[in-house]
Design brief:
six-stranded mixed sheet, four-stranded antiparallel sheet, alpha/beta, Rossmann fold, 230 residues
Length: 230
């Protein structure tokens, strides 16, 4: 069974009296432990597609399946619960809470979503901070970290709930070349070690180069699928 499957998915947005089509008749199947990129120009539908898979939005028509569940029929509460239990997110702007330390940022989803005892919670947090090379920076606040360090903390936070799937929207856009390469290398390692599936929307050729499957979008449609030889 595929981890992600979209069947005849269309997404329209209402802008005043106009209906704007963001996605048209999308058909996708993504297996477990994949490393997938959505590429295409701005406005092609990449972020909209991520939002549908991430239960942050619903299609106008069609079906969206994630981890064997048809998620497009979920209520808002069901969507939030599903995200907390099965999905991780990495954002372009890191989205770390400035008043929390690196440790507390990683801990946050475990407190908010998963009822895990304090001892086990600490073990899991330190495990993932060590995995991304940030254990020695755990008490620092985001303002004290570089862009690359912030994104490594964000990767740790995305993985701490043991998600099957991590969705990343332009995760290297605000990083310098060296930091971006290290973050990509780290995510590939996480894919191997924890059998996590990563799906990106990106313009970054460094991520595209590492992807196993590349979907190219134009005007809300998939115009190409490339299976890379790595």
């Amino acid at each position: 069974m595929s981890l992600v499957e979209l069947k005849h998915v269309t997404k329209n947005y209402q802008m005043g009296e106009m209906s704007v089509r963001a996605l048209k008749n999308i058909e996708i199947e993504i297996d477990e432990q994949s490393f997938v990129s959505f590429v295409g120009p701005s406005g092609s539908g990449k972020t909209t597609l991520l939002n549908l898979i991430g239960c942050l939005d619903k299609p106008s028509s069609g079906e969206v399946f994630v981890n064997g569940k048809q998620v497009n029929n979920f209520s808002n509460k069901e969507s939030a619960l599903f995200r907390g239990q099965h999905l991780g997110f990495i954002f372009q702007n890191f989205n770390l809470l400035p008043v929390l330390s690196a440790y507390e940022n990683v801990e946050y989803p475990l407190i908010m979503v998963q009822n895990i005892p304090a001892k086990k919670r600490k073990e899991r947090i330190m495990h993932y901070l060590e995995a991304v090379g940030m254990a020695d920076q755990k008490d620092k606040y985001p303002s004290q970290l570089s862009g690359g360090q912030k994104q490594r903390v964000a990767v740790s936070r995305a993985l701490v709930t043991d998600p099957k799937l991590v969705l990343a929207d332009e995760p290297t856009a605000n990083l310098d070349h060296v930091s971006a390469f290290k973050v990509i290398e780290l995510m590939r390692q996480m894919q191997h070690d924890f059998k996590t599936t990563f799906i990106f929307s990106t313009h970054d050729p460094k991520i595209v180069k590492e992807a196993e499957i590349i979907y190219t979008l134009e005007d809300g449609e998939i115009v190409d699928k490339e299976i890379a030889t790595l």
